[in-house]
Design goal:
Blueprint lengths: L14 H15 L21 E8 L1 E2 L4 E2 L5 E2 L2 E5 L5 E5 L4 E2 L6 E6 L8 E5 L5 E9 L5 E5 L1 H5 L4 E3 L11 E5 L9 E5 L14 H6 L4 E4 L12 H12 L26 E4 L6 H6 L7 E4 L4 E4 L4 E4 L11 E3 L4 E4 L2 E2 L8 E3 L8
Length: 355
């Protein structure tokens, strides 16, 4: 990829092409990395001739309007850079996004109408759990990013109930300025998250350990980003042209949770989605959020202790040391262990609206 000037705009891949590319990568690395280009016909993100527009979506139930606890919060500051890492525009303290909001647009005026290939997003006072974001450049090219990348690369995360194109529910990534969540900022090199016929099948290590591609920050207000050097760009282009997805990583320093994180959230989420496993949530060291029960899986995760219990079931003769889905209480030794009801129960068992 050339680092001089702007490239000729390429044909924008269709949603189906982007989804298929994402699913191919998932199969190649054997884990859920995510669908990496979120450009949907239904999302009409109007472009800004004087700059770029970024739309943020938090982890929430878009159909019933029942958001995660503290999933809504302050929208991150946005800083944009061109392909050689020059700062071309920013938007600071862009506002608040409430639980139940399906998206919030941030218009960033640029000092030059170049392609904002790099973005740096820094958290503000209230934590936000970001499920996905989309971006449109001044030349109307569109890009996207999903919260699944945070989960795979070491950030704290939780499930969301946002449905994309009837196929994918992204996880959301927590970011926060005051370190209630470890990650305070992140950067994305948007062209690396595009589906094209020439896109190599990079593995997880490429995306998580090459700071120019995707980087997590753990310090307050980083004011610079990592960019590919011209030498690295030439080497990467040769490997891409040869269909070789491997590339020596310029590793970032990992400063995320080194131990299991526990939640003090007092709410309960109930799901029936086979891809939202209570077992996985309880066993993952960086998962963070409300208690979680999956009625189809028949498992309940107590997030304050990361302890897994079966869901009580008369048909399976599970009546003790289990979670009663009707009373919303644990039953231990035949006695309900919770004196106070959950202040809020978030029910994801209804079919959510497809965005």
């Amino acid at each position: 990829m050339s680092t001089q000037g702007e490239e000729t705009p390429k044909k924008t891949p269709t949603l189906a092409e982007n989804l298929q590319w994402g699913f191919n990568i998932i199969g190649l690395i054997g884990t859920m990395i995510g669908v990496i280009r979120l450009i949907e016909d239904k999302v009409n993100l109007a472009h800004n001739k004087g700059g770029s527009v970024v739309r943020f979506h938090v982890g929430l139930d878009t159909d019933m309007g029942l958001g995660l606890s503290n999933a809504g919060g302050d929208i991150p500051d946005v800083r944009l850079y061109n392909e050689v890492g020059d700062f071309i525009g920013g938007r600071y303290d862009p506002g608040h996004i409430d639980d139940g909001t399906t998206g919030h647009d941030v218009r960033v005026q640029q000092n030059v109408a170049q392609q904002a290939t790099y973005g740096l997003f820094t958290a503000n006072e209230d934590a936000i759990c970001l499920a996905y974001m989309t971006m449109v450049w001044p030349d109307e090219q569109k890009f996207g990013w999903m919260g699944d990348w945070g989960k795979e690369c070491g950030a704290t995360w939780y499930y969301s109930n946002i449905v994309l194109s009837g196929q994918v529910k992204p996880t959301c990534m927590w970011i926060d300025r005051n370190h209630d969540q470890p990650v305070t900022a992140f950067q994305v090199h948007f062209p690396e998250f595009v589906a094209t016929e020439n896109t190599p099948a990079h593995d997880k290590e490429y995306y998580c350990n090459n700071a120019p591609v995707f980087n997590l920050y753990y310090s307050h207000e980083p004011n610079k980003i990592s960019v590919w050097t011209p030498t690295e760009e030439k080497a990467k282009a040769k490997r891409d042209a040869a269909g070789n997805g491997t590339f020596p990583a310029r590793r970032r320093q990992l400063s995320g949770p080194s131990e299991v994180v526990y939640s003090n959230d007092t709410r309960l989420v109930i799901s029936k989605d086979a891809n939202q496993s209570a077992v996985e949530l309880c066993s993952h060291p960086a998962s963070l959020g409300p208690d979680f029960a999956n009625v189809a899986e028949g498992q309940f995760c107590q997030m304050a202790t990361k302890t897994l219990f079966p869901v009580c079931s008369s048909s399976d003769r599970v009546k003790d040391n289990c979670f009663n889905i009707d009373t919303r209480k644990l039953v231990i030794g035949g006695i309900s262990t919770r004196d106070v009801d959950y202040p809020r129960v978030i029910d994801w068992t209804a079919d959510p609206e497809d965005l």
